[in-house]
Amino acid sequence: MQFEAWNAALRHNCGHFFAVPRRGQKAIEGHFCPHDVAGFSIVDIACNIEGIDRPIEGVRRDGREYLFLLAPISGQMQMEQDGERNVLKPGELYLLDSTLPASIGFGNAFCRYIAVHIPRALLLLDAPAGPIGGSPNFADRTALLRLYRYVMTLSDMKRGGDANLLLGLTRATFSRNDASRPAHAMRTQQSRFALAVREIESFLNSDELSLPWLAQRLGISTRQLDRDFEAHGTSFIQTLRTKRLKLAAEYMDVAARSRRAIRISDLAQDSGFRDLSNFNRAFKAEFGVTPGDYLRGGCQNVLQEAAHSL
Length: 310
Known about the structure:
Blueprint: H1 3-14, E1 18-20, E2 31-37, E3 40-47, E4 51-54, H2 56-61, E5 66-74, E6 77-81, E7 84-88, E8 94-97, E9 102-105, E10 111-119, H3 120-124, H4 141-156, H5 163-174, H6 189-202, H7 211-218, H8 222-231, H9 236-257, H10 264-270, H11 276-287, H12 291-296, H13 300-308
Antiparallel strand pairs: 1-4, 2-3, 3-10, 4-9, 5-8, 5-10, 6-7, 6-9
Helix pairs in contact: 4-5, 6-8, 7-8
């Protein structure tokens, strides 16, 4: 397979990730084989390149947010993201966050792995509010083995699969409790803001979610939390609305991929919107189309066009 064709397939299926060839490399020993199972895109990837880069420019250009569940079959993957480095071997798993820069190295050796595209908002919803990306929680080895085997099963499927099982196993494997949170996590404005957003993502469709409720969970004043949002050029309400709209879009993407009918009214409720008219207006303001048109227009294509217009 020609390097440029492989690199184009990577960007088309995964977003703005960029393959790095070996010196003088024109062809790749490998393949790039995507298919949909249980509403998720699953890609069987093989290559002998130097690596893959995810620059900050790529993060800014992509309209979709994923946690890529990576499972090597052969070879090694040298992962680097969010200040951490890990070497991934067959039988192990890694969650790559598309909202952060990253790099994957293959050591100029052949590597084959499975990549499951898990919509970020769907996975974080109802998950414990601690860190969830990167390496798994090795305290639960049983969950890791179950998830790895299930990913291998999904990679061989042409249809079927259980989206809820995949989400549940992934949460169990990668979630960490609050004890893993660094002691200094609430000392800086940046860290407080990150934790606040993570809490919002866990409780997106909860009726309890409000600025005072969130401030109480974090152990700070409402005024302090409001200032933290302002310092990042946003507000609690704006962040909450944007996150809920992205969750709604992800629900529709999964339904479309699995060829499952979905009612807009149910979608609004599941995404945390209690008023259908408000949901329709907010969705059109965010994505330029109504929820119904978004579904009919092939979800991913609509969002990609919106991202490219930025």
